[in-house]
UniProtKB/TrEMBL annotation:
<feature type="binding site">
    <location>
        <position position="342"/>
    </location>
    <ligand>
        <name>S-adenosyl-L-methionine</name>
    </ligand>
</feature>
<feature type="binding site">
    <location>
        <position position="278"/>
    </location>
    <ligand>
        <name>S-adenosyl-L-methionine</name>
    </ligand>
</feature>
<dbReference type="InterPro" id="IPR030391">
    <property type="entry name" value="MeTrfase_TrmA_CS"/>
</dbReference>
<keyword id="KW-0949">S-adenosyl-L-methionine</keyword>
<keyword id="KW-0808">Transferase</keyword>
<dbReference type="Pfam" id="PF05958">
    <property type="entry name" value="tRNA_U5-meth_tr"/>
</dbReference>
<feature type="binding site">
    <location>
        <position position="228"/>
    </location>
    <ligand>
        <name>S-adenosyl-L-methionine</name>
    </ligand>
</feature>
<dbReference type="InterPro" id="IPR010280">
    <property type="entry name" value="U5_MeTrfase_fam"/>
</dbReference>
<comment type="similarity">
    <text>Belongs to the class I-like SAM-binding methyltransferase superfamily. RNA M5U methyltransferase family.</text>
</comment>
<feature type="active site" description="Nucleophile">
    <location>
        <position position="369"/>
    </location>
</feature>
<keyword id="KW-0489">Methyltransferase</keyword>
<feature type="binding site">
    <location>
        <position position="257"/>
    </location>
    <ligand>
        <name>S-adenosyl-L-methionine</name>
    </ligand>
</feature>
<protein>
    <submittedName>
        <fullName>23S rRNA (Uracil(747)-C(5))-methyltransferase RlmC</fullName>
    </submittedName>
</protein>
<dbReference type="InterPro" id="IPR029063">
    <property type="entry name" value="SAM-dependent_MTases_sf"/>
</dbReference>
<dbReference type="InterPro" id="IPR011825">
    <property type="entry name" value="23SrRNA_MeTrfase_RlmC"/>
</dbReference>
Length: 412
C-alpha cells in the first residue's frame, strides 16, 4: 500500500508499510510459531489474509485545528511534523464510505461551534483547573464505525456537555448531509487524560444501536461496546471457531470476554447451552438484543444456513451476563465442556488460566490479539495443549495480528 502521509513522515501508525504484505504475513506467522515453539504438536492452518487497505471499520480521529478549520486525524509523530495537526481523512486503511463521512463531520464542528480541545500534555505536572480546561476547548475525538451495510455510528468525545444542545440543533442538518448516519452520541470525558473515553454517553439520535451484519447474524453495537476492527477477518474468525466447535459438538460452552456475542452466537446450536460473560453491560445488552431477535425471526427467514425454527431452538440455550470473566469462572463449580476466551491484550491471566487447568473442561478455544500473553497464559495450563491454530491478519500494515488456537486436554 502506498501512503503519502507515511512517505512524508506525517504518520507512522502503519509500522510495516515498507514491507510487502506477503512478507508481513510470513513474519507474523514466524513470530507466533516461535512464541508457541514449546508446543510441537500444533497443526497450523494457512493464515487468513484480507485486503491490505480499506479494511478498517472504525476510525479514531483526534480533532485539532480551529472551529472554522477543524482537522480530523492525528497529532504528528516525532520528526518534521512533530506536534502538528495531520489530516488523515484520506487514510488508505478506511473504506471510501468511512472517508466520505469526515467532511460532513468537520462541517458539523464549524456549524455547531464545537471548539477542538487542546490535547497538548501538561507541562511541569501542573493541575488543570476547571477554568483552564474550559479554555482549552471541547472536542477531543471523533469516533466513527461503519457497518457492512454502509450505516454509520458517530461518537463525539467532548470535555463537557457544553456543546450538546448546539449539536442537537444541527442534527436534522447532519442527517440530510450524511444519510448513512444511524447513531450519533456524545461521550463526556472531562479528564485531561490519555484515556480515550469517559463513562457518560448521551445518545442524540432515535436509534441507539448500529446493526453490524456478520455472516448473516446482525449484531447490535451500542456506542460503548467493543467490536473487532476488521469485519471481513472477524467473520472468518467466528466461522473458524464455529467449525471447530461443531466438530467437537459440546453440550455446553462458555464464551468469556464475549463482547457483543460474536463467538457465542456463531457457536450456538439446538440442545447446546451457551453462556457469554462480558464486563461491559452495554455489550451484554447488545448481545441479548441479537439473541432475542434470532429467537423471534419470521417463519420464512434464513440466517446463515439455518431457518427460523433452528435459531429459536439454538438461542433457547444462550444467555449473556455482565461481569468479570475470571470472577465468574472462579465463582462456580460447574464446568462446561468447552470454553472460548477472547481477552483484551493483557490475556486471561494466571487466575483464570489456573481455573481452566484445574477444571474438567476438555477443550478451550483461545482467540488472542497478543500472542505474547497467550504464550504466558499457556504456561499456567500445561494440561491444555494447543492442537490447531490459525493466524488471522486482522491488522495489516502493523505488527499486530489475531491468533485462534484450539487447546485439548491431554489424558492425565
Ligand atoms: C478482544 S475483546 C473481544 C470481544 C468479543 N469476543 C468479540 O469478538 O467482539 C475483549 C472484550 O473483553 C471485555 N473485557 C475486558 N475485561 C474484562 C473482564 N475482566 N471480564 C470480562 N470481560 C472483559 C471487553 O469489554 C471486550 O469486550
Amino acid at each position: 500500500m502506498q501512503c503519502p502521509h507515511y512517505d512524508a513522515g506525517r504518520c507512522r501508525s502503519c509500522t510495516l508499510l515498507d514491507i510487502a504484505r506477503p512478507q508481513q504475513v510470513r513474519d507474523k506467522q514466524a513470530h507466533v510459531a516461535e512464541l508457541l515453539a514449546a508446543h510441537d504438536d500444533v497443526t497450523w492452518l494457512p493464515p487468513v489474509v484480507g485486503p491490505e487497505s480499506g479494511f478498517r471499520n472504525k476510525a479514531k480521529m483526534v480533532v485539532t485545528g480551529t472551529v472554522e478549520d477543524p482537522v480530523l486525524g492525528i497529532v504528528g509523530p516525532p520528526g518534521p511534523y512533530a506536534g502538528q495537526s495531520v489530516d488523515l481523512t484520506d487514510c488508505g486503511l478506511y473504506p471510501p464510505a468511512l472517508q466520505e463521512a469526515f467532511a460532513p463531520l468537520a462541517e458539523l464542528v464549524t456549524r455547531a461551534t464545537i471548539r477542538p480541545y487542546d490535547l497538548t500534555p501538561e507541562r511541569d505536572g501542573r493541575r488543570v483547573t476547571p477554568r483552564d480546561a474550559a479554555r482549552r476547548g471541547e472536542l477531543k475525538h471523533v469516533l466513527v464505525t461503519l457497518s457492512a451495510d454502509g450505516e454509520l455510528m458517530v461518537r463525539l468525545v467532548l470535555r463537557s456537555t457544553e456543546a450538546v444542545a448546539r449539536i442537537r440543533k444541527h442534527l436534522p442538518w447532519l442527517h440530510a448531509r450524511l444519510p448513512a448516519l444511524a447513531v450519533l452520541s456524545v461521550n463526556v470525558q472531562p479528564a485531561h487524560a490519555a484515556v480515550l473515553e469517559g463513562d457518560e454517553e448521551i445518545v442524540l439520535t432515535e436509534r441507539a444501536t448500529l446493526p453490524m451484519r456478520v455472516d448473516g447474524i446482525t449484531l447490535h453495537l451500542r456506542p460503548q461496546s467493543f467490536f473487532q476492527t476488521n469485519t471481513g477477518v472477524a467473520a472468518a474468525l467466528y466461522r473458524q471457531a464455529r467449525d471447530w466447535v461443531e466438530e467437537i459438538d459440546p453440550a455446553s460452552l462458555w464464551d468469556l470476554y464475549c463482547g457483543v456475542g460474536g463467538f457465542a452466537l456463531h457457536c450456538a446450536a439446538p440442545g447446546r447451552s451457551v453462556t457469554g460473560i462480558e464486563i461491559s453491560a452495554e455489550a451484554v445488552a447488545s448481545a441479548t438484543t441479537t439473541a432475542a431477535e434470532l429467537a423471534a425471526l419470521p417463519a420464512a427467514a434464513v440466517v446463515g444456513d439455518q431457518d427460523a425454527a433452528w435459531w429459536r431452538d439454538a438461542v433457547a440455550g444462550v444467555r449473556f451476563d455482565a461481569g468479570d470473566a475470571a470472577g465468574f469462572a472462579l465463582g462456580t463449580d460447574d464446568d462446561p465442556e468447552l470454553v472460548i476466551v477472547n481477552p483484551p491484550r493483557r490475556g486471561i491471566g494466571p487466575d483464570l488460566a489456573g481455573r481452566l487447568e484445574a477444571s474438567r473442561v476438555r477443550h478451550v478455544l483461545y482467540s488472542s490479539c497478543r500472542a505474547q500473553t497467550l504464550a504466558s497464559d499457556l504456561k499456567h495450563m500445561p494440561s491444555l495443549r494447543p492442537r490447531r491454530a490459525v493466524l488471522l491478519d486482522m491488522f495489516p500494515q502493523t505488527g499486530h495480528y489475531e491468533v485462534l488456537t484450539l487447546l485439548e486436554r491431554v489424558p492425565a
